[in-house]
Write a structure and sequence with these properties.
- This protein is of the alpha+beta class and about 90 residues long.
- The chain contains four helices and three strands.
């Protein structure tokens, strides 16, 4: 809506391809909040089981419970460590 050609009603089927670089800038690095939310969402999306191995909290004898996930999005990779109910970023 803020593009001058759009405001001047210079619209046709070639509008987006013609102004693609201005309308769809190259995405930057994904934020820490994105990676934390992605890791948490992934863990919540796993099916819930009822057996002894259904616990997804990352049980460790004598160590804090944590789960490490290697996530990838749009060519970017991160290691997200979920400790309890919090996500911590590594790398």
């Amino acid at each position: 809506i803020g593009h001058p050609a759009f405001a001047a009603a210079e619209l046709d089927t070639g509008f987006i391809p013609r102004y693609q670089d201005e309308l769809l800038p190259t995405p930057g690095a994904l934020s820490d909040e994105f990676w934390q939310a992605a890791g948490s969402a992934f863990m919540q999306s796993l099916p819930v089981g009822d057996g002894p191995w259904a616990n997804r909290q990352g049980f460790r004898v004598g160590l804090p419970a944590e789960v490490s996930l290697h996530l990838s999005c749009n060519g970017q990779d991160r290691l997200v460590t979920l400790a309890g109910h919090t996500a911590q970023l590594c790398g």
